[in-house]
Amino acid sequence: MNLQNCSWTALFLLLLGCSAAPRMRSVTTSDAVPQVKVLLRQTSQAVAVTANMAFVVKGDDNQDITYVSEGQKIELKCAQDKIEIYDAQGKSLGKTITATCSAKSDEIRFLTGGNSYRGRLVATANNGEMMLLNVLDMESYLMGVVRNEIGKLPMEQIEAAKAQAVAARTYAVKNRNKYKTYDYVSDVGDQVYQGASSETDVSNQAVVETAGQILQYNDQPISAFFFSTCGGVTANAIDVWKNSSSTPYLQSIRTSYNGKNFCMESPLYRWEVKWTGDEIENLIKANLPAILKDQLPSEDFSKLQTQQLYNLAVIQRDSSQRIQTITIGFSKDQYTVTGEQIRRILKGEKSILYSSLFRIDIQRNADGTIMTVSAKGAGNGHGVGMCQWCARTMAKDGYGYQQILGYFYRGTALKKMY
Question: What DSSP state is assigned to residue 269?
Answer without folding.
Answer: S
